[in-house]
Amino acid sequence: MSTDAPSSGSRVSGFAREHTLGVAGALSAVALGLVFAVVGGLVPGSVLPRAPAVLDAIPTLNAVVSLAAIATISLGVRAARARDFETHRRFMLTSTGLFGTFLAMYLYRLAVLGTTDFAGPAAVERFVYLPLLAVHILLAIVCVPLVVYVLTLAATRPIADLFDTAHKRIGRVAAVLWVVSFGLGVAVYVLLYLVY
């Protein structure tokens, strides 16, 4: 057997490198499709296990995860500015893991229990809570393809090659929007579960 033949992993990596935008678009579509399927009720909560203590803890856990993600994103940006790209990579992968954890817990709770009604005054709901929630959700949706794109770029190229891509430019925008989205999510949590 020849050792010169590329492995299937290198073929996949080569394809993703040559078609980064398409691969990132496909991955983003799958991720957002799953989110919209759960939000749209296409994933029946009855097929998921019910763990009442876990379901009750998820909002607080997600607020903690969001605060941790704000910290890791900020530290990752700081590391990139200091040209410590290995530390930057670790922080951004941690941020991605935190986002995945947040999303899995959020979607599980949403599928099983549905949405949580706002218990505060109607004026606060209309002029504060719902606008914060809407911007949070919109930014979270926008962040998915941006984050997936910069991660795909980073996963398919050595660090030196990333300087010739849109990684820095798109990553900067993604990081800011990601931090704002997580921050607004914490504000929504405070209004929904602590204040009212």
Characterise this structure.
With 196 residues, this protein is an all-alpha fold. The protein has one domain (13-195). Helix content is 80%, strand content 0%. The protein contains seven helices and no strands. It has helices spanning 8-18, 20-39, 52-81, 85-113, 122-155, 159-162, 167-195. Helix 3 (52-81) packs antiparallel against helix 7 (167-195).
Overall mean pLDDT stands at 93
- Spatial gap, N to C terminus: 68 Å
Helix and strand run: HHHHHHH
Given the C-alpha coordinates, what overall shape results? globular
Q: Could you say how many structural domains there are in total?
A: 1
Largest sheet: none
Gyration radius, in Å: 19 Å
Helix content: over 70%
Pfam family, one: DUF420
Keywords: Membrane, Transmembrane, Transmembrane helix
InterPro entries: DUF420
Organism: Halobaculum magnesiiphilum
